[in-house]
Design brief:
Elements lengths: L3 H6 L9 H10 L6 H11 L4 E4 L6 H12 L6 E6 L3 H14 L7 E4 L5 H8 L5 E4 L1 H9 L6 E8 L2 H6 L3 H8 L7 E6 L4 H10 L4 E4 L2 H4 L4 E7 L5 H11 L5 E4 L3 H13 L4 E4 L5 H12 L5 E4 L1 H4 L9 E4 L6 H8 L9 E7 L4 H11 L4 E3 L4 H14 L4 H11 L4 H16 L5 H18 L4 H22 L6
Parallel strand pairs: 1-6, 1-7, 2-4, 2-5, 3-4, 5-6, 8-13, 8-14, 9-11, 9-12, 10-11, 12-13
The protein binds adenosine-5'-diphosphate and magnesium ion (MG).
Length: 481
């Protein structure tokens, strides 16, 4: 039963926002605040510093934009500064602030590298209230005293972990030398690495910590699957899944920039419409890749975590983890790219036997059902096998071996045996039996390590039985393949 008070608190009307702002929210189509908004907005309105952690796509922009818009005084100066890692994000935030502040006439300006300094100075002179800036260009303006009426009362550090990854932390600390002492700082981040915590310790005053943990936001609209494969089968596994899944748009996350490039090149050579996105590309190329993906000129984006952080792309049907992600936070973060706005999404993780333990850890942390699937085989095997066999040129050596084989079996038997060898070679991914063997192996290893943990192993045994039951249930499920 829904508690009346719960219901009351989960409405924008109860967060301390005024009519004009509520009208902007309504017009933006937001009916209920997201958890991060519900928790952060009242605290920000109380003029407290905050450290807010929530995964991508949870509405962090509005969480800081709404209370800031509410508190603007229209005093002809720049009242709020939002620092964000990339130009794309700056523009995205500017759009959102403009949209939400439409009925109170909020004026914004974007400041980022790549645009002419003269043009930016002209825009800054038009008395914007909220400045959204990337670190490098902002510091450049500040050092050269190009910004007049610059007395922000609010400073937002958006996507702080990405700013760290991009090497902006020193720049940010330098920026703070140019800011008023009495400033309310709002630090937002999807993950909370130590360097960010340290930065927060240095610049924030008695911050309120808000953390929306991954388990709070596990999305029921995302079907999470994993496929067991061998190390050398990754790209082939992706291709088979691309061919059998009903893909509208997908993001394939790789660990390295090179991997992203290589997989993108391979996919293009096989006729798929893909684009790579990573930090080595210049701003313009990244921007055009993202735009092309948004407009569906390409439906596959092969990306690294950093390059794709924070981007708001709504109709991604599938997310692939080319490797198991480094930790649960990154996992949750990545899969949150799909299943947005009430649409169903599929998150696929490729796992090798060596990565299996990491998978178990994520499964444990995230507390959701990651289900085992098998790489589809049949369709590929029947169709392409016949083609490939018929097209194969006969090797001289083959005559010799055939002559010998004839002494042992008849022609049809020989053929069937050879096809079986071929099929075995073409099979990719581990079968369920392989996984059982792997689990047994892990158990034996663990027992060797700690022979006294009988109880634990008994508990684990019952968990295994549970997952066995789950797997059986899945087998009877029509959607299994
Ligand atoms: N309360 C809400 N109701 C519906 N949609 C929302 C709400 N808050 C934000 N959104 C939308 O969700 C998307 C993701 O929000 P964003 O602020 O970019 O997330 P984050 O910064 O956490 O990654 C945006 O399209 C935004 O307009
Ligand atoms: Mg964001």
């Amino acid at each position: 039963m829904i508690n009346k008070d719960d219901k009351k608190s989960s409405m924008f009307e109860n967060l301390g926002l005024s009519k004009g702002v509520l009208k902007g929210i309504r017009e933006a189509g937001f009916s209920q605040p997201s958890p991060i908004q519900e928790q952060a907005i009242p605290v920000i309105l109380e003029k407290k510093d905050i450290i807010a952690q929530a995964q991508t796509g949870t509405g962090k922009t509005a969480a800081f934009a709404l209370p800031i818009i509410e508190m603007l005084k229209n005093n002809q100066g720049i009242e709020a500064l939002v620092i964000t890692p990339t130009r794309e994000l700056a523009m995205q935030i500017s759009d959102e602030v403009y949209k939400l502040g439409k009925f109170v006439k909020t004026r914004t300006v974007c400041v980022y590298g790549g645009q002419s300094i003269k043009k930016q100075c002209e825009l800054i002179e038009k008395n914007p209230q909220v400045m959204i800036a990337t670190p490098g260009r902002l510091l450049d303006h500040l050092k050269n005293q190009r910004i007049k009426n610059f007395n922000p009362r609010f400073v937002v550090l958006d996507e702080s972990d990405e700013m760290l990854d991009m090497g902006f932390l020193d720049t940010i600390e330098e920026i703070f030398n140019y800011l008023p002492q009495q400033v309310q700082i709002l630090l937002f981040s999807a993950t909370m690495p130590t360097a960010i915590k340290r930065l927060a310790d240095r610049i924030l005053q008695d911050p309120v910590h808000i953390k929306i943990t991954p388990t709070n936001v596990t999305n029921v609209d995302i079907a999470q699957r994993y496929y067991m494969i061998n190390e050398n089968e990754r790209s082939e596994a992706v291709i088979r899944l691309l061919d059998t899944e009903n893909i509208h748009k997908c993001i394939i996350f790789t660990r390295t920039k090179k991997e992203a490039d290589d997989l993108h090149v391979l996919l293009c050579s096989r006729g798929y419409k893909s684009k790579a996105l990573h930090g080595d590309m210049d701003q313009r190329d990244r921007r055009s890749a993202i735009l092309a993906f948004k407009e569906k000129k390409y439906n596959i984006l092969v990306a690294t975590d950093v390059a794709s952080r924070g981007l708001d792309i709504s109709d991604v049907s599938h997310v692939f983890n080319y490797h198991i992600p480094l930790n649960s936070e990154i996992y949750v973060h990545r899969i949150g790219r799909t299943g947005r706005a009430g649409k169903k999404g599929v998150a696929i993780t490729l796992v090798t036997p060596l990565e299996y333990k990491d998978l178990k850890k994520i499964q444990n942390d995230v507390g959701s059902d990651l289900e085992l699937y098998e790489i589809p085989q049949d369709k590929f095997l029947s169709k392409s096998t016949i083609q490939e066999i018929l097209k194969t040129k006969i090797d001289d050596k083959a005559f010799e071996i055939y002559e010998e084989l004839k002494n042992h079996a008849d022609a049809s038997q020989i053929t069937l045996k050879l096809i079986s060898i071929y099929l075995k070679q073409k099979h990719i991914g581990l079968k369920k039996q392989d996984l059982d063997a792997l689990e047994k192996n892990i158990k034996v290893q663990e027992q060797k390590k700690s022979p006294l943990t009988h109880q634990k192993s008994r508990r684990r045994h019952s968990q295994d039985r549970k997952s066995e039951n789950r797997r059986n249930k899945r087998k009877s499920n029509k959607e299994y393949r």
